[in-house]
Amino acid sequence: MSTLVSSPGRFRRSRLRRQGRLRDLVAETRLDPSMLVLPVFVDANVSAPSEIASLPGHARLPVRELPRIAEKASSAGIGGLLLFGLPGEKDERGENAADPLGPVPMALRALRDVAGPDLALIADVCLCEYTTHGHCGAVTPEGTIDNDATLPLLAAAARIYAEAGADLVAPSDMMDGRVAAIRHELDRADLTETAILAYSAKFASSFYGPFRDAADCAPQFGDRAAYQMDARNGREALAEIAADLEEGADMFMVKPAGPYLDVIAAARARFDAPLAAYQVSGEYAALHAASARGWIDLRRAALESLTGIARAGADMIVTYFALDAAAWMRER
User: Fold this and answer.
1) Which of 33, 109, 142, 153 lies at a C-alpha separation of 20 to 30 Å from 269?
2) Residue 255 bears catalytic tag
3) Across residues 89-105, what is the average pLDDT?
4) Which CATH class is domain 32-331?
5) What is the reported pLDDT for 263?
């Protein structure tokens, strides 16, 4: 009876790493442009693109520029656009978020006929861009967030966006009960087919700085730690996700992505609903800043970071790299 004798070369896993075509063939995680979503800033105050210094390659756009962006996104094969609005006027309660002639509804109507069947239109639902104080909800005379007074404002904005043509509305405010309020309002308006992508685990993060510059929504007092999640709490994030799904969310999001890969992985293991992750402005800006100093290869670092987010379990990635990453994927 012969005995099989192993040799040092028998189990060389590096054999499948030696060529790019072999590495691609056995890759466990695969990026595709269709899983990427591009954030877009629609500004009612500009008549031409206005560059955002802290977000290289991005600009605040007038509505008339949106069809061009949609055509680029469709040609690149990316999955969707996430729209943020900068209104002409702000107020204490952010009521202009629900203005049918506001930047997001106008953008949705402009995009609906040119977006094509494969490009999802997602409307962010929050009040921070629309309030004079920069917080995500109504504020009490004492200067605290009035959670319950905020819910009808969010629901009204979500309905207006759905009526204008949003495929998904995406509440990012982190008020308790807002998913249920929005679902009720959409159903009451016979908008039952509009889906909800809830920013369920949105952390009070230091990585939002460039976005707040781009959207002109930095808080004028205090911070958002009273309603956004504490970075130290992973189990609480899972509880927030469970609550939003119970209230009727069709998808959920973890934000930011890179510093919270453990939360993404834990959520993927626990929930079967589609999972989105937001590679936020600070993550994008940091890679660009390091690249500008010659410290990293931007293309490789960006794709590596996106691969890590997908490997952790994200089905969809919101990223400012969407157009560039789609082009890099085609070139590989």
Assistant:
1) 33
2) yes
3) 95
4) alpha beta
5) 98
